[in-house]
Amino acid sequence: MITLYGFGTGFGLPEISPFVTKTEVQLKMAGLVYRKEKAKPPASPKGQLPYIVDEAETIADSTFIRAHLEAKYGFDFDAPLSLQARAQAWAFERMIEHHIYWALVGARWVEGDNFAKGPAHFFDGAPAHLREKMREDAQFRVAENYLLSGLGRHAPDEDIDLAVRSLFALSVQLGDKPFMMGEAPCGMDATAFATLAGILTPFFESALRQRTEQFANLTTYVDRMMLLYYPEFAWAPVQQQAA
């Protein structure tokens, strides 16, 4: 059986990490039996989550996990797509993971109130005399990576404006379709859903969340995907939250 290692539930989400969510949804898409265990990033071969253990193999990084699942189990996540649509899906996935995701990181880790409410609690179990220093160091490292991503070099309103341009592109791509590339979900939907749900969770207040909620088709898309892949999770539909 496959074992998926992630952070677990939190922040009003079935899984804290968008990348773990991406892999979990793809496991569900493929109909593969798996179990889930909590882990910390240092346990992973690449120092990041998710990673999976599949019999004797350990695979880290969500993109390489997907490639492993496709190669070993013969499941094509993009089966309904033409060659051109596959290329477009890959390009959108890169945009989500290398642009929109970093806006999410900024909202969670760089904004002081959200950091204190959320990621700061990752260190609650650390020795009391080290706890605050570990929190400060972690926030500094993430803020530094946010800067290196490019978004962190701009003023807060400017980085949100840039992220919203990518969200607009996603909204246009989705249109009135049920899924990003058409009538059936594909691999890229796991990535889009995971990141958008991370932004839209009511746990955090942010300008990014407020701007994202203005794209009605994206909010209903997250609700649709949540119901499809996490029907047991108590997710309040975004449109109801805004009402």
From TrEMBL:
It holds the Pfam family GST_C_6. One of its GO terms (molecular function) is transferase activity. Residues 165-225 form the Metaxin glutathione S-transferase domain. The keyword Transferase applies. Keywords: Transferase. This is Glutathione S-transferase. Residues 18-114 form the Thioredoxin-like fold domain. InterPro entries: FAX/IsoI-like, Glutathione_S-Trfase, Metaxin_GST, Mito_Protein_Transport_Metaxin, Thioredoxin-like_fold, Thioredoxin-like_sf.
